[in-house]
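I'll show an entry:

:::
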Amino acid sequence: MDLQLILSQGVLGLINGSFYALLALGLSIIVGMLGIINFAHGAFYMTGAFLCWMMLEYLGVGYWPSLILVPLLMSFAAALLERSLLKPLYRIDPAYGLLLTFGVVLVLESAFRIAYGISGRPYRLPPEFSGAFDLGFMLLPKYRAWVVVASLTMCAVTILSIERTRLGSYLRAAIERPDLLETFGVNVPMMVTCTFAFGVALAAFAGVLAAPIYQVSPLMGAHLIIVVFAVVVIGGMGSIIGAVVTGPAVGLIEGMVKVVYPEAASVIVFIVMGLVLLFRPSGVFGKA
């Protein structure tokens, strides 16, 4: 077996895995805090990529400002969505929240499909990322290296913020005992809103990172979110560490399977998910 091919596929798998980790992290935060399966997470990722493309196409706003502005805009829209539509559903069957977010998917995808069609639209690569690094066994485009660094850095900062700061301790307490936390004067509903907004901002951030790599299309979120859900299940529903560790791991597994048996690369994540559910239903890092 060609070692160069193995290493190349491993690097490409790590790039895909960095997207899985970033999206799974945002999804796990929302599931852990709100108890709602946010089916619209892939649509928010797609919308972030489209907003990045539209800002460049219509307003001349470049990549770096979009990397900040798009997550902020999406977090504001997510806060409005949570306060107006999701909040009334917290105390009833979680299936209603799933149905609502699925409806959001249909609205967003249909809107962009009507406006721009289903064909992908390219986003110009920032000039500072032209060229590639020579790793010896492959040429790694500079932008793809940046994607891995940016994604994993954002994941690390998020985990440290949740695990090591006072705000993070409030968040963990709100997950376990929101009623008790309110007795200490903490505005739990506002914390829930901010948590949902932050999870959506992570999806939008991933969308901006993806715009120069993949074709910006109304279908790009639908193609990715199914794998991300599998990553969340493997890591453990609501487990933040599980999402960050499992994302790159799944990407690497996909890369290795492409070397051995390419036809199975698209389903290997679901085979792994099935095995995890069979032997550890709570997920690798989840609590029983």
Notes: The beta strands are 132-134, 139-141.
